[in-house]
């Protein structure tokens, strides 16, 4: 993987029987823009029915990380100029790519070495194999930017099964609403990741997949879970089950207020201190709706409809400003309390999908 045939924002090429999608926007930590989404989508469409392509690898050209998310700064700038249509087109295209990944009939190996947040999870978690290194970490940080967890994660993460042995919908709700940062151990335990390799072996692992097979590469380079530090999520599961297994933020908030583990509740409140109240309320409704979604296409439609509404509101512009533009981490969200958010407005959007 040292020599790259092109220098596009995504290097898409076939080597032997493997299609490779190498994210190549290192200065932006591979944040996905419309051009990158189109390259990935076009390659998947071509390779889907190409019998000479047996598998697909998704990786990064940079050692700094896998993918830090979608290019929401551009969406904010366009919205401030009165152009919401461009953002609509971008998210439509991105969500179609997410659907393609989830429904792709061949093996997809995402190699996550470093950060994978937001859209970075959308381009990795829908494939059959999510290979992480000890440097990997993941999060859905949308509450802080006045948005919602999306890219199909509100569908996939409610159904993923890892070392924990079962799908845990309330865990997905907890992860999305708190923006919890998952360690490699958390990712493997929850099912967000499937395999673990050393960061120093990434290039050799990819080369072995291409030259030999995925099974051979995993046999040579995979590590057991004790290769990395233990995670925290497993120990928090009883608290998460007791508090986040509800269909609305009002119910979750009530459960937290009456929960006996004060340390857990304080941790949750601290994680949510900079969250948009509107995003929190809307996200809880979205997770409840997508627990019952027919398929990922239905779930993505729910995410799109709710996200389109939020991108037209004050909190999205303000949140992106505070986190990604001015970086003062001091947003002024409106309304400032979850109790003042019109939950029926967002509930109605989801009921009409």
Topology (SSEs and partners):
Elements: E1 10-15, E2 18-23, H1 34-48, E3 55-60, E4 65-67, H2 72-80, H3 85-103, E5 107-112, E6 115-117, H4 119-122, E7 129-132, E8 137-139, H5 153-156, H6 169-178, H7 184-190, E9 195-196, H8 202-211, H9 214-221, H10 233-244, H11 249-257, H12 262-271, H13 277-291, H14 296-311, H15 314-325, H16 343-351
Parallel strand pairs: 2-3, 3-5, 4-6, 5-7, 6-8, 7-9
Antiparallel strand pairs: 1-2
Helix pairs in contact: 1-3, 2-15, 3-14, 6-10, 6-13, 8-9, 13-14, 13-16
Name the features.
353 residues, six-stranded mixed sheet, 2-enoyl-CoA Hydratase, Chain A, domain 1, alpha/beta, 9 strands
Give a description of the structure.
The protein is built from 16 helices and 9 strands. The chain is α/β, with parallel strands linked by helices. It has one domain (10-351): 2-enoyl-CoA Hydratase, Chain A, domain 1 (Alpha-Beta Complex), CATH 3.90.226. The strands form 2 sheets. It has a 6-stranded mixed beta sheet, with helices on both faces. Strands 4-6-8 form a 3-stranded parallel beta sheet. β2 (18-23), α1 and β3 (55-60) form a beta-alpha-beta unit. α3 (85-103) runs antiparallel to α14 and α8 (202-211) runs antiparallel to α9 (214-221).
């Amino acid at each position: 993987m040292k020599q790259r045939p092109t220098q596009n924002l995504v290097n898409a090429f076939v080597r032997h029987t493997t299609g490779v999608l190498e994210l190549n926007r290192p200065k932006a930590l591979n944040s996905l823009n419309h051009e990158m989404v189109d390259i990935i989508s076009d390659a998947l469409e071509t390779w889907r029915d190409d019998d000479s392509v047996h598998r697909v690898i998704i990786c990064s050209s940079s050692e700094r990380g896998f993918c830090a998310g979608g290019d929401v700064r551009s969406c904010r700038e366009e919205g401030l100029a009165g152009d919401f249509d461009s953002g609509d087109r971008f998210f439509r295209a991105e969500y179609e790519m997410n659907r393609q990944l989830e429904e792709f009939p061949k093996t997809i190996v995402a190699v996550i070495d470093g950060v994978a947040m937001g859209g970075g999870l959308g381009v990795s978690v829908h494939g059959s194999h999510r290979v992480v290194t000890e440097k990997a970490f993941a999060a859905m940080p949308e509450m802080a930017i006045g948005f919602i967890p999306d890219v199909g994660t509100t569908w996939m993460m409610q159904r993923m099964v890892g070392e924990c042995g079962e799908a845990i919908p309330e865990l997905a709700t907890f992860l999305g609403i708190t923006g919890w940062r998952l360690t490699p151990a958390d990712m493997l335990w929850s099912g967000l990741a499937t395999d673990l390799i050393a960061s120093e072996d990434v290039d050799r692992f990819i080369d072995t997949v291409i030259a030999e097979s995925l099974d051979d590469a995993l046999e040579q380079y995979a590590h057991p879970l004790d290769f990395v530090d233990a995670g925290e999520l497993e120990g928090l599961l009883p608290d998460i089950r007791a508090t986040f297994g509800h269909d609305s933020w009002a119910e979750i908030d009530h459960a937290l207020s009456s929960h006996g583990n004060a340390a857990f509740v304080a941790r949750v409140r601290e994680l949510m201190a900079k969250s948009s109240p509107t995003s929190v309320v809307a996200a809880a409704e979205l997770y409840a709706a997508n627990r019952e979604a027919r398929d990922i296409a239905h779930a993505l439609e729910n995410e799109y409809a709710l996200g389109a509404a939020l991108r037209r509101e004050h909190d999205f512009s303000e949140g992106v400003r505070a986190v990604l533009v001015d970086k003062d981490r001091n947003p002024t969200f409106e309304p400032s309390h979850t109790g003042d958010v019109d939950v029926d407005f967002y509930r109605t959007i989801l009921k009409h999908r």
